[in-house]
């Protein structure tokens, strides 16, 4: 008998490759981002079906403001359209939305859209979908420390953890990056301390259910020790003897 597959409780994804996907097809970069929204919809549905409880995606980094103006403005318009189109279905599917990131630099229209999407899905429990938008891992650590200092609270690992943007969910078990790049690019620097990393050559619009299953299978085959030895892990979780 084969061992049962271990499904990560929390998967985080750097959704990379939308622009390259479009360029290879002689399309504007925004077309790749639109296709990326479809891939995210497909991935969220697959996570629900496979028993994943939390999905966190890197949608727009704090460094992405340095991209061409027309691409940034197009991304903002795409976000507004995606919220209007996707939120009703996400609500039906039992997906709860959280938007994690700095909102001060966003337009009032975008901020209102994010808040309304969160409110509309607040009662859902099948999947938590965290969308990191205008987010950076360094920003997250800095804002957590600043909020603790402003309240006069001691800055410890535990207090910092509770002030992070993803304090409402456990740390990711598996971090996936698509697009062939092998770096985490300022994503979940605090939370990914003990995450398993998986790098896929597929561009994000091409990342389908089979690619997700490949990443989960790789995760399932790994031994997570969290600083302990293999012997300690085996002692704490002995393999059952069948017979």
UniProtKB/TrEMBL annotation:
UniProt GO MF annotations: ditrans,polycis-undecaprenyl-diphosphate synthase [(2E,6E)-farnesyl-diphosphate specific] activity; magnesium ion binding
Annotated positions binding Mg(2+): 16, 196
Residues that coordinate or bind substrate: 17-21, 29, 33, 61-63, 65, 67, 177, 183-185
GO cellular component, as recorded: cytosol
CDD domains hit by this protein: Cis_IPPS
Keywords, ordered alphabetically: Magnesium, Metal-binding, Transferase
Any one GO BP annotation for this protein: polyprenol biosynthetic process
Entry annotation: catalytic residues: 16, 64
Database matches in PANTHER family: DEHYDRODOLICHYL DIPHOSPHATE SYNTHASE 2, DEHYDRODOLICHYL DIPHOSPHATE SYNTHASE FAMILY MEMBER
Function per UniProt: Catalyzes the condensation of isopentenyl diphosphate (IPP) with allylic pyrophosphates generating different type of terpenoids.
Subunit relationships: Homodimer.
Protein name: Isoprenyl transferase
Origin species: Acidovorax soli
């Amino acid at each position: 008998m084969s061992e049962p597959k271990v499904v990560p409780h929390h998967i985080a994804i750097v959704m990379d490759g939308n622009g390259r996907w479009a360029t290879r097809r002689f399309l504007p970069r925004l077309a790749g981002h639109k296709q990326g929204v479809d891939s995210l919809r497909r991935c969220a549905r697959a996570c629900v079906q496979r028993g994943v409880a939390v999905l966190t995606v890197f949608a727009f980094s704090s460094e992405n403001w340095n991209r061409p103006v027309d691409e940034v403005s197009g991304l903002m318009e795409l976000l507004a359209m995606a919220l209007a189109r996707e939120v009703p279905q996400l609500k039906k599917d039992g997906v709860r939305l959280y938007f994690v990131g700095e909102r001060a630099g966003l337009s009032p229209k975008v901020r209102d859209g994010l808040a309304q999407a969160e409110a509309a899905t607040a009662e859902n429990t099948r999947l938590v979908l965290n969308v990191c938008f205008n987010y950076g891992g360094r920003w997250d650590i800095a804002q957590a420390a600043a909020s603790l200092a402003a309240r006069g609270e001691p800055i410890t690992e535990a207090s910092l953890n509770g002030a992070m943007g993803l304090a409402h969910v456990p740390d990711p078990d598996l971090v996936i990056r698509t697009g062939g790049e092998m770096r985490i690019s300022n994503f979940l620097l605090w939370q990914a301390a003990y995450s398993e990393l998986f790098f896929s050559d597929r561009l994000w619009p091409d990342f389908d259910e089979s690619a997700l299953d490949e990443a989960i299978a790789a995760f399932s085959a790994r031994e997570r020790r969290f600083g302990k030895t293999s012997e300690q892990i085996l002692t704490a979780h002995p393999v059952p003897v069948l017979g």
